């Protein structure tokens, strides 16, 4: 029961009857009425003046008179210059609320005609260090966007590319060889990704010492960076790796497994997953093959030193190296191979890369080079770039003073949730097991909501304590409202009060109740906009506005104590539907909502 479609068809009929012409579909512009005007929907009349040949206000009044006389849902209208504001009868809204309750996954699109297969790549970690705060925003965005797009009927595949090769990986391996003393995660008691990350830090510390010595001996900083023994050893290790040296490969496999096992633990804590994980160590070979084929076709160029480049000067960019003079590949090479492999694996026509905004240029170049190599689907590659996320100084610990470890942050969120919940007395009536489950749900929900409510493109500061405020625009505030609704329904059940299966359209409802129904009506459009814009923030802020409106309604309108059973039943019914949408919307953000808090 889409009222916008009803109104659009009615306007077309009105124009045909009144002016004897069929208007262009695009000229029928119907939008929600601004809050400072009376009405529910507004028809922009100006595009219809070429048909009516009359002034805006007269045209609007004529169409308004016709609609009121012929469309039962319209009870009133008013005209402000060239805008026709239409008020919809309350009986329609009550009937609409009834219809919402009959639908599973309200706002979701099922059995979409011609669904697309869309790949969403997120996480993309390096196997030389643990996941950090930036990865958290990346994972939460990617996972949520995947769920949102899938809710609109397309076939979404969640993929991850693990950067498990290259000079940065060799740095950790070399440091372990030199200073590791055969330590393993089991021996150290550390998660594997943390252990390997420690050796990456160790390499950097020792490398800087060597650079300082060489500079003191008279070399320039750039010369010292290139000639330091450690970096030359790491480069030699990379050459051995690409040559499949057995000892190098064996160490690489062991250390990679340590890190991947550690990642899995963190992913599980975050509540994210993937349909398939790709590895750069596999896809770089295909990338090199594509580069060689592009060279043969004349799409790429080889320089005197044997290096291979893409000339992008005609596109207003510079030249981009794809193979070094020694034949080793670069990041762009493996991204070419990964893109081709995944699109082939899934027969996909569209892909979304969730990667920080510092990589805007990289993906612009990737798209152009794939086009030069003849892949038409390159036009359907989209970069969902997001801003940096930081913590206020001193709020939570970090491993090096700058990089905030994901596991540390998750543990800290649980601790903060426990502290604030206990201070507010919200856990007094629960068993220890229930308390632990709820604390984890609150802490993780606070983290996810606080990050996802911000437009992805914006840089943000994450404040753990602010995120767990039970009275602000936070996950716990929304979770608590959901729990309040479930408590209300339990009380009704305990008193044998049955929720109506259908609503009486003649029930007298207040403006606040009417406003809640209207907000429910906009939920499907909110999901559509969130999917189109790759923005969970649309849903997060919609849910917050809905919850605010509900809490005002709950405060001002008695439910269980209302003597009129018809009105009491309606309010219970309305409350339940608000709860269903809260659960649905938060679910699309990857957030659980507890029945009790």
List the strand order in the largest sheet: 7-6-5-11-12
The level of helicity is 55-70%
The major β-sheet equals: 5 strands, parallel
How far is the N terminus from the C terminus? 35 Å
User: Rg from C-alpha positions?
Assistant: 30 Å
Look at the helices and sheets and give the structural class: alpha/beta
CATH class of the domain at 406-588: Mainly Alpha
Looking at the structure, the CATH topology of the domain at 406-588 is Isoleucyl-tRNA Synthetase, Domain 1
Number of H/I helices: 22
Average pLDDT metric: 93
Indicate the CATH architecture of the domain at 406-588. Orthogonal Bundle
The assembly state of the depicted protein chains is single chain
The shape is globular
CATH superfamily of the domain at 406-588: Isoleucyl-tRNA Synthetase, Domain 1
Write the layout of secondary structure elements.
Blueprint: H1 3-19, E1 29-32, E2 41-44, H2 49-52, H3 56-70, E3 74-80, E4 83-88, H4 90-101, E5 117-121, H5 133-151, E6 155-162, H6 167-179, H7 185-188, H8 192-216, H9 221-227, H10 229-242, H11 246-270, E7 276-279, H12 280-297, E8 301-302, E9 308-311, E10 319-323, H13 331-346, E11 350-356, H14 360-372, E12 381-386, E13 389-390, H15 406-423, H16 432-452, E14 460-461, H17 464-467, H18 475-494, H19 511-521, H20 523-533, H21 536-556, H22 565-588
Parallel strand pairs: 5-6, 5-11, 6-7, 11-12, 13-14
Antiparallel strand pairs: 1-2, 2-4, 3-4, 8-9, 9-10
């Amino acid at each position: 029961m889409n009222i916008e479609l009803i109104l659009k068809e009615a306007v077309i009929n009105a124009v045909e009857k009144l002016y004897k012409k069929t208007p262009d579909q695009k000229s029928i512009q119907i939008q929600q009425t601004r809050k400072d005007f009376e009405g529910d929907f507004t028809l922009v009349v100006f595009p219809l003046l070429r048909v009516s040949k009359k002034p805006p206000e007269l045209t609007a009044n004529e169409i308004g008179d016709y609609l009121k006389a012929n469309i039962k849902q319209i009870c009133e209208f008013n005209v402000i210059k060239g805008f026709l504001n239409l008020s919809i009868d309350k009986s329609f809204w009550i009937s609409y609320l009834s219809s919402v309750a009959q639908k599973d996954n309200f706002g979701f699109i099922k059995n979409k005609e011609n669904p697309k297969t869309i790949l969403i790549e997120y996480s993309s970690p390096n196997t030389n260090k643990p996941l950090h705060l930036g990865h958290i925003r990346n994972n939460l965005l990617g996972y949520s966007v995947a769920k949102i797009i899938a809710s609109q009927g397309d076939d979404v595949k969640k993929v991850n590319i693990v950067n498990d090769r290259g000079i940065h990986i060799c740095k950790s391996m070399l440091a372990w060889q030199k200073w590791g003393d055969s330590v393993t995660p089991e021996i150290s008691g550390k998660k594997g990704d943390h252990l390997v990350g420690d050796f990456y830090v160790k390499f950097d510390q020792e490398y800087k010492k060597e650079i300082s010595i060489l500079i003191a001996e008279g070399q320039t900083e750039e010369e010292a960076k290139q000639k330091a023994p450690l970096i030359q050893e790491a480069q030699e290790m990379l050459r051995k790796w690409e040559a499949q040296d057995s000892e190098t490969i064996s160490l690489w496999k062991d250390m990679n497994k340590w890190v991947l096992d550690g990642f899995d633990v963190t992913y599980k804590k975050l509540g994210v997953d993937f349909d398939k994980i790709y590895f750069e160590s596999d896809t770089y070979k295909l990338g090199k093959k594509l580069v060689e084929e592009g060279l043969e076709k004349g799409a790429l160029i080889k320089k005197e030193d044997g290096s291979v480049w893409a000339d992008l000067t005609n596109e207003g960019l510079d030249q981009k190296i794809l193979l070094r003079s020694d034949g080793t590949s670069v990041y762009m090479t493996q991204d070419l191979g990964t893109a081709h492999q995944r699109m082939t694996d899934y027969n996909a026509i569209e892909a979304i890369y969730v990667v920080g905004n510092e990589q805007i240029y990289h993906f612009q170049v990737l798209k152009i080079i794939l086009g030069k190599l003849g892949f038409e689907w390159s036009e359907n590659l989209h970069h969902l770039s997001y801003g940096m996320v930081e913590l206020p100084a001193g709020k939570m610990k970090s491993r090096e003073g700058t990089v905030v470890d994901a596991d540390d942050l998750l543990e800290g969120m649980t601790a903060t949730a426990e502290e604030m919940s206990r201070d507010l007395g919200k856990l007094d009536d629960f068993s220890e097991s229930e308390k632990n489950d709820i604390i984890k749900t609150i802490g993780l929900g606070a983290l996810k909501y606080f990050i996802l409510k911000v437009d992805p493109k914006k840089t943000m500061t994450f404040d753990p304590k602010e995120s767990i405020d039970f009275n602000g625009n936070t996950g716990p505030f929304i979770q608590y409202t959901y729990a309040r609704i479930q408590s209300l329904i339990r009380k009704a059940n305990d008193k044998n009060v049955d929720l109506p299966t259908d609503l009486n359209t003649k029930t007298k409802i207040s403006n606040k109740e009417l406003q809640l129904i209207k907000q429910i009506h906009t939920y499907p459009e909110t999901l559509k906009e969130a999917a189109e814009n790759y923005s969970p923030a649309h849903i997060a802020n919609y849910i917050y506005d809905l919850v605010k409106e509900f809490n005002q309604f709950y405060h001002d309108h008695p439910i269980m104590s209302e003597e009129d059973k018809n009105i009491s039943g309606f309010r219970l019914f309305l409350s339940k539907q608000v709860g269903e949408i809260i659960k649905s919307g938060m679910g699309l953000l990857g957030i659980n909502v507890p029945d009790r808090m």
